[in-house]
Amino acid sequence: MNVTIINIGDELLIGQVVNTNASTMSRLLTAAGMEVRKTMVVGDIYKDIWDAVDEAMRESDAVLVTGGLGPTKDDITKKLLSEYFGSELIENNMALENVERIFKSRGYEVTPVNRAQALVPKCCEVLNNDLGTAPCMWFSHKGRVLVSLPGVPFEMEWLMRNRVIPKLQETFNTDIILTKNILVQGIGESFLSDLIEPWELSLPKNVKLAYLPVAGLTKLRLTARLPHNFPLSTFHFPLEGLYSLAGKYIVGEDCETLDELVHKTLVERGLTLATAESCTGGNIARLLTAQAGASSYFKGGVVAYSNEVKESALGVKHETLIDYGAVSEETVREMAEGVRNRLGADLTIATTGIAGPDGGTAEKPVGTVWIAVSSATKTEAKLLQFGANRRQQNIDRSTNQAFAMLIRLICQKD
Amino acid sequence: MNVTIINIGDELLIGQVVNTNASTMSRLLTAAGMEVRKTMVVGDIYKDIWDAVDEAMRESDAVLVTGGLGPTKDDITKKLLSEYFGSELIENNMALENVERIFKSRGYEVTPVNRAQALVPKCCEVLNNDLGTAPCMWFSHKGRVLVSLPGVPFEMEWLMRNRVIPKLQETFNTDIILTKNILVQGIGESFLSDLIEPWELSLPKNVKLAYLPVAGLTKLRLTARLPHNFPLSTFHFPLEGLYSLAGKYIVGEDCETLDELVHKTLVERGLTLATAESCTGGNIARLLTAQAGASSYFKGGVVAYSNEVKESALGVKHETLIDYGAVSEETVREMAEGVRNRLGADLTIATTGIAGPDGGTAEKPVGTVWIAVSSATKTEAKLLQFGANRRQQNIDRSTNQAFAMLIRLICQKD
Q1: A281 vs B284: CB contact, 8 Å cut-off?
Q2: Do B15 and A37 touch (CB under 8 A)?
Q3: What is the CATH number of domain A258-410?
Q4: pLDDT digit string (tens) for A126-142?
């Protein structure tokens, strides 16, 4: 069963907006066992949309279209689809009630322009859009399906998860897809691949493995494909072989990112955290505080960018900075211990390094980073050497390294 | 002169990678005065690539293709293009020297697999890829052009800017496009549009205006289209009318973002900054420190997430927190002044608020945010009320509001 995606919008063709809709839809469809054959972006031009729809309907089992559903006059998808399927626009009761419900909840009257959002081609089935006024429309045509969705990302994603994918699965009797993420850190992708090859070769044919490396972390994603009537409780991913070969590099399961894993771990264990960041410049704090509920464990942090702040706000000794420099094991340890004393948390993270592109020396080139993690009983520090020309990448890799070291400290793992 | 973009790669169709190449290319082409008609993504499948290339070559003046150029066997673009244009693969001297140069600089020997990267269709012109081993290939065919680029984003972008766009401009004698950004803050998009309508209507026909709103900021982008031989020194964007109508809302020109504007302003004026962040959780610090050279003005910051840290690290009075609460004008002022005293900077920013989704009360609902900026002589505080259900959006809007207030304080503008 294969799918073509068509995203409509001039803003995509001028590069004003990154087309995250295509990747979100592709990811959700792939995770649900469907194959995306092609994606296209066209502008708000009748002929271009028509040609794209016509081509896709000849080549794919299902065609998903986003955009062109607003109440303004340059939004032409509904008229075009009505004509393409030889239908006519009529007012749909469910769609109108939805528009009225949403306007009422915001305290507005429904204007004629907004009422027009309830007009849909007679031949389609409306799938209710709980989050917005633009309708989601399902067309069945000669054994194929076309679905038109609004282009607003959060409405589109909600509709995909709650309306479109379940109905596509039912219509096409697709396989069940199960996935499992395993976060691996401290080993390069190619070494990891060699190390776990015996396990990979032993995987059953319906389980696939993908490597997703990002900023010093490798996410292993296992995907199992099962018949649509398979009894799910009897299925388990075969992970024993992976753990016996590479257990020391595995920092967590079932998370997409290390900041999510740290968040989950600290909440579960009731431990508090404070941070002392120099080269990561607040990136560690903002990744944790971007997650709802961070206040239950995150006390705060110091972004100690200058040496004065390392001294005044963290209590790093002046002599340490003079004798060993700001980027040194001695300094990073005093930062980690200092922030615990000052901010009073169970655990701390400290980073100091030269993110680049300037500031390097022969002895400490750009990309030299010291990271420490500390508890009341133990402080671990580590030297890292990253590349010279990638400031943001150095920040991201330092951040992931710090998160992984913290997880290892909490779980008493080296 | 119009362009179709084809991005090749299975990783795009499964949604593992967001297709930023399409938006980067679209943005650069649009900025250079070319029209992107359509973009397509296809997988590493011979027939699908062939059909996409064939369709695009019939419809567009220029076709840009990314991906499928690596040395591994699933990368098939070169073979396909050679066949499509009726040519044959030969070793290209310039491409081989480029591979050898790059391997030498990394201290590796060129293996036969890598040497194969210098094979290109005989009929193409190689545009040198200074940043990587995959060649960029330019095909002329019946008055149309196809360019094949590597899919690695930074190589692609460098080639677009330095090789492909200049050559397209020369080949098609395209117009010159000049752009100017104006950052506007403190007024909603629709009010701004009404306010500056007289100026907008007076713009010459070759100057277009676009509104790019993001997180409480509106970027106005002016684009002028001039004939390719126009004497550039005689052209000026007509901004007087805009400033006389909306000058009080304009915070800067010629930057893409407010963090870039703050960075530039502080470097130019030789002023130092420190931050005290609660609800923004380090986001302000990390946006500034993400820019090379931030150490010349950024002393550091405190992420004061808990009340204890607001007291211990910033010196906010215990009674203030008890009497007025953490989210209050009194607290945010003490945070801004406290971080200046503790960290010793010319200017400070402080934020405190309820980012959500939890933590709101009837009196202070989710989205209530206080922001202060402070110099040695003046502290300004402002209350903002954002929406309830968007944690990240509240963080981003608070961040932009803080940056705009800082710019106004520096420039003595209300």
Answers
A1: no
A2: no
A3: 3.90.950.20
A4: 999 998 889 999 999 99
pLDDT surpasses 70 at B413: no
- Whether the ipTM is more than 0.85: the answer is no
Q: Across the interface, which of A284, A343, A395 has its CB nearest the CB of B313? A: A343
Q: Is the pLDDT of residue B410 over 90?
A: yes
Q: What is the pLDDT of residue B92?
A: 96
- Per-residue pLDDT at B125: 97
Cβ–Cβ gap B343/A309 under 8 Å: yes
pLDDT of residue B73 exceeding 60, the answer is no
pTM of the full structure: 0.85
Architecture per CATH, domain B2-172, reads as: 3-Layer(aba) Sandwich (3.40)
Question: Which residue ranges of chain A lie beneath pLDDT 70?
Answer: 71-74, 389, 413-414
Candidate from A29, A52, A305 with C-beta closest to B295: A305
Confidence of residue B72 (pLDDT cuts 50, 70, 90): low
What's the rounded Cα separation, in Å, for the pair B190 and B211?
A: 10
Domains B2-172 and B176-253 share a fold: no
Q: Where are the domains of chain A?
A: 2-172, 176-253, 258-410
Q: From chain B, pick out residues whose CB is under 8 angstroms from the CB of A12.
A: 22-23, 26, 39
CA distances in angstroms from B396 to A23, A282, B166, B352, B373, listed in the order given: 23, 15, 36, 13, 17
Of 3.30.70.2860, 3.10.310.10, 3.40.30.10, 3.90.1170.50, which CATH number belongs to B176-253?
A: 3.30.70.2860
Architecture of B259-410 per CATH?
Alpha-Beta Complex (3.90)
**pLDDT per residue as tens digits for the range B265-305:** 999 999 999 999 999 999 999 999 999 999 999 999 999 99
